[in-house]
């Protein structure tokens, strides 16, 4: 598996020198990116509780800069702008992206001495079931391409271990033929394998040319490993059973907000390592690209998740508004972006999707999504987080998945093993199996509500979703 270190172009950080203002504000404020425009706003009881009672304002970012000299085209690459964004260059809308979690590029005008770029974010609330923030939450890059260049996301690499301990690395480039080594196949006699305990990474160069004999070279980083999910032995990593000790993580940083923060992320992952975690579920959307690079280096398996909503919404202003327009492009871009990281062991096409049990088209849509993923990457299985297994079992959703995913519902393991041949033959995994409101796997937790510094008489009791109620011991 490979992950890109140097893209097929000159790429420079472009996070400094921006300004922003929220809706209703008249003055521009200087800011360095990434930035969460909702962070540090005052609390409002009328705001969405899932957003921490913090407002989610519309926000505009602006940067005025001299056009860099030199040949070739220029563009800005945004790793993620939350959400429903559009980019205006010199007064003209040039691009936008509904998803707040996937990258896109905005072309710049090289014919003028100065470019004025505005980025508009429209994260109306409620739009998620957790704090998501709003703004340019991830890095921005200035990209210069000079003639022919390789698109890093066109490169796909797979690895295979042989019976004699050697490894085979296969390199494919979309729209091109690999001529050397022959067939794009590299053989390694004594490979150093990638595992969470020994995250060995190597570097390889990929060089391409077009019919006009223009050349371009990119360097990539890769790790050799194989993963297989079985119904009886669990997950096999490099041919051996491997116990997953995982967590579900949202791509936010607590009191620091939702803007990407590498120092905070590395600290968090180091603490997870210390407590024994070896796997992470990207709950419930694609994470910042740097997260995946760091997981390669530190050694974490990841279940990479694409969506929390399909057509039927969880929230009023969530992704379901754009699903039919965007899902296939977003899913393809998601898989192409992440397919060369060694840590990705499962693709998840959704979490707790109401379409799985409320829609007559749930199974057909699941099959379509699985086919899209397989058309790009056949080396990893596809799963989804199912929280209504009875319906998904009878309507065909489970049968459409490579690995059956259960949210909670531990009693369904035995039911599936005793069920039809097709379901019994499928591997199963459970994530999540408990939540932050679970307490000793017991009946529930009690949460007092405070108003004006005093405890209200109104008490809410919530049952643990990890287990059925039981008496305290």
**How many domains make up the 3D coordinates?**
3
List the strand order in the largest sheet: 4-3-5-10-7-8
The third-level CATH topology of the largest domain is TIM Barrel
What is the CATH first-level class name of the largest domain?
A: Alpha Beta
Q: What's the name of the CATH homologous superfamily of the largest domain? A: Glycosidases
Q: Kindly name the structural category.
A: alpha+beta
| Assembly of the depicted chains | single chain
Structural notes for this entry:
- With 473 residues, the protein is α+β, with helices and mostly antiparallel strands.
- It has nine helices and 28 strands.
- The strands form eight sheets. Strands 4-3-5-10-7-8 form a six-stranded antiparallel β-sheet, with no helix packed on it.
- Helix 1 (262-274) runs parallel beside helix 2 (289-298).
- The longest helix has 16 residues, at 323-338.
- The termini are far apart.
Please sum up the structure shown.
The protein is α+β, with helices and mostly antiparallel strands. Helix content is 17%, strand content 32%. The chain folds into three domains: 144 residues, Jelly Rolls (Sandwich), CATH 2.60.120; 71 residues, no CATH class; 203 residues, Glycosidases (TIM Barrel), CATH 3.20.20.
Please outline the helices and strands.
Blueprint: E1 2-4, E2 10-13, E3 18-22, E4 29-31, E5 59-66, E6 73-78, E7 85-89, E8 92-97, E9 104-107, E10 114-121, E11 140-145, E12 155-161, E13 167-173, E14 185-188, E15 202-209, E16 215-222, E17 227-230, E18 234-237, E19 240-241, E20 246-249, H1 262-274, E21 279-282, H2 289-298, E22 301-305, H3 323-338, E23 344-351, H4 355-358, H5 362-376, E24 382-385, H6 389-395, H7 397-400, E25 404-406, H8 412-417, H9 421-424, E26 428-430, E27 444-451, E28 454-463
Parallel strand pairs: 20-21, 21-22, 22-23, 23-24, 25-26
Antiparallel strand pairs: 1-16, 2-11, 3-4, 3-5, 5-10, 6-9, 6-11, 7-8, 7-10, 12-13, 13-14, 15-16, 17-18, 18-19, 27-28
